[in-house]
Amino acid sequence: SYVLTQPPSVSVAPGQTARITCGGNNIGSKSVHWYQQKPGQAPVLVVYDDSDRPSGIPERFSGSNSGNTATLTISRVEAGDEADYYCQVWDSSSGTGVFGTGTKVTVL
Amino acid sequence: EVQLVESGGGLVQPGGSLRLSCAASGFTFSSYWMSWVRQAPGKGLEWVANIKQDGSEKYYVDSVKGRFTISRDNAKNSLYLQMNSLRAEDTAVYYCARGRQDRFDYWGQGTLVTVSS
């Protein structure tokens, strides 16, 4: 089965840039989506199709995808960005959805 | 406003059954793929199943194949998950989600399923 690997945690100071990686075999050939989940809340889609943002999501959230790594970048980090972040793809070979292991972003 | 409201969760014994429902409003339900995603306590997200707009295609994670059945009623704007032969490892918050086949753009608040004797 397809596996997506994320770092367990990322720490960043307010105003700085957080980068969250998502590793998978030839992930660059897939569309990657990113979700933000705050404690006790449902996930929210923040980036889809590698680099597009849903309406209402700040431009500070951006994404890229190439080779074996996709990246979610959060610029000018704010305290409200503290959350768990998950990458996700559809594995067409198995017909299943796959989530990454999740990354906890801590704002120092 | 898009709304997805799950119901039907609760405490069930191992080997038991439960049927989850998701009531949708604020959008044309019949135009979207719908999915179930679960999250065990303190753990990450796990995709469970999805269903095409007209119900003609359904996909499941291996761990629930043969035990869970996803279905929908477009006339009632509702999504369902019939869960049989439940195991302790099925304990999780179950989210209903709207989207495409490959992504989920709106999520409900979830319903907790606890499998325990």
Structural features, described:
The complex is a heterodimer of chains A (108) and B (117). By secondary structure, chain A is an all-beta fold. Helices cover 0% and strands 45% of the residues of chain A. Chain A is built from no helices and nine strands. The termini of chain A are far apart. By secondary structure, chain B is mostly beta strands. The model of chain B has no long low-confidence stretch (mean pLDDT 97).
Outline of this structure?
The complex is a heterodimer of chains A (108) and B (117). Chain A is an all-beta fold. Chain A is 0% helix and 45% strand.
Q: Using DSSP, what is the number of strands of chain A?
A: 9
* SSE pattern of chain B, N- to C-terminal: EEEEEEEEEEE
Radius of gyration of chain A, CA atoms, in whole angstroms: 13 Å
Order of helices and strands of chain A: EEEEEEEEE
User: How many helical elements of chain B?
Assistant: 0
**Uncertain runs of chain B with pLDDT below 50, 5 residues or more?**
none
So what's the oligomer here?
Answer: heterodimer
Proportion in β-strands of chain B:
over 45%
State mean pLDDT of chain B (0 to 100 scale).
Answer: 97
Span between termini of chain A:
36 Å
The helix count of chain A comes to: 0
Category by helix and strand content of chain B: mainly beta
Main beta-sheet annotation of chain B: 7 strands, mixed
Protein structure class of chain A: mainly beta
What secondary-structure arrangement, pairings included, does this model have?
The complex is a heterodimer of chains A (108) and B (117).
Chain A: E1 9-12, E2 18-23, E3 33-37, E4 44-47, E5 61-66, E6 69-74, E7 83-91, E8 96-99, E9 103-107
Parallel strand pairs in A: 1-9
Antiparallel strand pairs in A: 2-6, 3-4, 3-7, 5-6, 7-8, 7-9
Chain B: E1 3-7, E2 10-12, E3 18-25, E4 33-39, E5 45-51, E6 58-60, E7 68-73, E8 78-83, E9 92-99, E10 104-107, E11 111-115
